[in-house]
Amino acid sequence: MPRALAFFLFFAVALSLVGGVHYYIWARLVRDLALPAWAHRGLTLLVVVLCLSVPLTFWLGRRLPLDNTRPFMLVAFGWLGMVFLLLVLLGMSEVVRTALSLATRLVSDAPPEDPERRLALSRIFGASVALLAGGLGVAATYQGLGRFVVKQVSVALARFPKTLSGFTIVQISDVHVGATIRKEFIDSIVDRVNALEPDLIAITGDLVDGSVAQLAEHVAPLARLRAPHGVYFVTGNHEYYSGVEAWCAELQRLGITVLQNERVQIGTGSDSFDLAGVDDYSAGRFGTGPSLERALQGRDQSREVVLLAHQPRAVFEASEAGVGLQLSGHTHGGQIWPWNFFVRLQQPVVSGLERVGQTLVYVSNGTGYWGPPMRLGAPAEITRLVLSASSG
């Protein structure tokens, strides 16, 4: 299929989807409420403007300098977050209304449906949805644009050397530097990470959403990261959308070691463990793809291994390979409730520390956000992992 035709089809489908969703919101929150004429016209115009603003903003974002688009992108992405909340709450209200209707019909002596009662219920549900979505939107935006938390996690590993007990790894993930996350945010991350005085720093993918030419100055503060055993990075799926080879070279220039299906020794002699890193789970569509076999080839099986892998679902292969601990991101912890339930359909772990087979996997909520500048029930985090030898 010619590239121009593929782009046109994608744009047409995306525009139809955006239009259909906005029509549904308008139908439930404007048309069905039988509002006064002035309110009906005003809200209809608002919905149309908001609908058109989404494709217009993304169109402008591809043509204007990045520094000029941030306010527009924040508004557009913020509205998309509100659309998601409205759809969730409207869907829940549809279920409640249907249940009430069925319950009424099961009553044998139920009177015929009263149009005024139906309108009153529509207005009650509509007002409730709008108010609740607005409140959740404010809370989610406050959490999304607020500061990240530092999460402390203790991990005991069977083959971890006792002499290294207390070794700290600080993990950041899914920062998504791009349209709305810029240099000042990266500066704040670096300051906080360095203040934790980690032994090692791990960046588990989806660092950027844009090219090196666009974002190099915004990522540059990462050169200030400091840890005695180094700073390491593995690719996420978004690096492959943004020019992965150029970004790997840029990060190496900043003093960050990129692990692409390879491992390094952390420590010396018997007082050491292996740190491995694999390319993103989906990287095979763009090149060679992940290879844990290559990363672990020839290693001493008696040594502990910590694996950096962007997507949690890499843990199934990691467990078969005898990996002790896997550090991942990708899920954002769901970012906006209840999306975490849908993420669970694809990933074995959505957030936190769990055991899958032989392997412990820790999944970060992410340090930034993607799309809407919102987080609901999944606060952004910097993770400080303290490793020790298992007593067993």
Topology:
Layout: H1 3-29, H2 37-61, H3 66-106, H4 115-145, E1 149-157, E2 167-172, H5 183-195, E3 200-203, H6 212-219, E4 231-233, H7 237-241, H8 244-253, E5 257-258, E6 262-268, E7 271-277, H9 292-296, E8 305-308, H10 315-320, E9 325-328, H11 339-343, E10 352-356, E11 359-363, E12 381-389
Parallel strand pairs: 1-12, 2-3, 3-4, 4-5, 7-8, 8-9, 9-11
Antiparallel strand pairs: 2-12, 6-7, 10-11
Helix pairs in contact: 1-2, 1-3, 2-3, 3-4
Write structural notes for this entry.
This protein has helices spanning 3-29, 37-61, 66-106, 115-145, 183-195, 212-219, 237-241, 244-253, 292-296, 315-320, 339-343, and strands at residues 149-157, 167-172, 200-203, 231-233, 257-258, 262-268, 271-277, 305-308, 325-328, 352-356, 359-363, 381-389. With 392 residues, the chain is an alpha/beta fold. The strands form 2 sheets. The chain has a 6-stranded mixed β-sheet with strand order 1-12-2-3-4-5, with helices on one face. A 6-stranded mixed β-sheet has the order 6-7-8-9-11-10.
Compute the gyration radius: what is it? 25 Å
| SSE string, helices as H and strands as E | HHHHEEHEHEHHEEEHEHEHEEE
Q: Helix segment count?
A: 11
End-to-end span in angstroms?
58 Å
Shape: globular
- Poorly predicted parts: none
Counting helices, strands and paired strands, the structural category is alpha/beta
Q: Which sequence of strands runs across the widest sheet?
A: 1-12-2-3-4-5
The strand count comes to 12
Strand content: 15-25%
